[in-house]
Amino acid sequence: MTSFAAEPVAGQAPPPDSVAPRDSTSSTPTSVGRLNDTIRGFIERWGSVWVEGEITSWNVRGGNIYGRIKDLTTDSTVSVRLWSSVRQRMRGEFAVGDHVVACVKADYYTRTGDFSFGVSSLRQVGLGEQLERIERLRAQLRSEGLFDAARKRPIPFLPHTIGLITGERSDAEKDVHRNAELRWPQVEFRTRHAAVQGDRCVPETIAALQALDADPDVDVIVIARGGGDPQTLLGFSDERLLRAVAAAQTPVVSAIGHENDRPLLDEVADLRASTPTDAAKRVVPDVAEQRALVAQLRARLSSRLTQRVSHDISQLEHVRSRPVMRNPQTLLESRSHHLWVQVSRGRETIERRVDAQRRRTAELRAALRALSPESTLARGYAIAHLEDGEIIREAAQAPAGTPVAITVGSGSFAARSEGATADSARPAAAEQQPSAASPPPPRMET
User: Which PANTHER family does the protein's record reference (predicted)?
Assistant: First the structure.
């Protein structure tokens, strides 16, 4: 009989004498490991499949879930397993009796020979399509910026009037009223009742929202509802309601009591509260806490003022203890004597400089007068000028008959030259003597 080499599967090397299951006989049997590996390889080629059924077993162990899903028309069941990582991605809670659609993939454990299905996705039947539509709407509104934190309006610190939209005679209404009034007894409410599930939920909630938004006394609007399954919360993910909340001028608080399935109202509202009670606590400040805070701030202010006043008094006493502050006249007297000394020194310096300049001026005036032609004329000398004003320095400049002007120490007079005299023939050196030693001018005829 032909023998085939064993193919290693899943990291396990078969015995050397093992044959493929299809070639096994009583004399050449295959091994258990080779058989399990072959089964696992065959099952892995199935891939993932979607199945519909009813949950008949749902056990949580160590964060993982082990259960069974039963066919709706027969008694056929399959074992399913959800790892904790898959469970964290699931939206909503599941329990025995739920009608579900699951995406499963067969898995065969070669060590024990156990067969089960691993679940990668699980949805409630009838809800899956709606949830997909909600996710598409979520992506659209996010792209439009309706989820942006920048567009969210701030909640007033102390709203005088709170608009409340909730179900009639609901526990949510009682929780909001009770907790808000415990924190701030003077708070007022404008309550509008609306259906919180079903077909009437969206139109009634929108009408109540628009009425409260138009009320000028309402400072903030709270939309409150107790918890519920995803099916009953679909109204709070309706596009009409979401756009009405985004268009409101009054801040809106979403207080839908749930955690696992968050409706889109939580994303569009200006503030999201986990429960109606949480909404009352986050919208209305606690009067006791505020009074304690005021008392604390007043105590801190009083302490700071006391320290500042004490410090300033100490500084003032330190300044007043200085000698100059005890007798300010001492400072004035010392400064006045110093000022008198400086003034005296300045006056003496100025007087000395004025006297020196006065003497210098007199000397210059005397020297100027000595060099002045007027002094020479005053001693009896005269200056002869031609008619054009030229001074006569040589006898040849005034031949006989030349009219001249004679300037003396006091005034001038006209004369006429009679020509050069014998004295004008003196050596030229004599002509170069100073004017004070020069001979008398030529004889003139007046």
Answer: EXODEOXYRIBONUCLEASE 7 LARGE SUBUNIT
Shared domain for 441 and 416, answered yes or no, is yes
- At residue 43, the 3 state secondary structure works out as helix
Scan for tokens 């400040």, then name that residue.
285
- Does some domain include residue 358? no
Can you tell me whether residue 21 is helix, strand or coil? Answer: helix
Q: Are 37 and 70 in contact (CB under 8 A)?
A: no
In angstroms, the CA 101 to CA 90 distance is 13
- Looking at residue 297, its amino acid is L
Range of the domain at 200: 158-285
3-state secondary structure (DSSP) of residue 388: coil
Unique residue bearing structure tokens 């400086």: 342
> Is the domain of 386 the same as that of 290?
no
Instruction: Tell me whether residue 121 is exposed, middle or buried, using C-beta atoms within 10 angstroms of its C-beta: 0 to 12, 13 to 18, 19 or more.
Output: middle
Q: Which residues make beta-bridge pairs with 55?
A: 69
pLDDT single digits (tens) 317-347: 888 887 777 777 777 777 888 898 899 999 9
Q: In what order do the strands lie in the sheet containing 271-272?
A: 188-193, 161-166, 220-225, 252-256, 271-272
CATH number of residue 266's parent domain = 3.40.50.2300
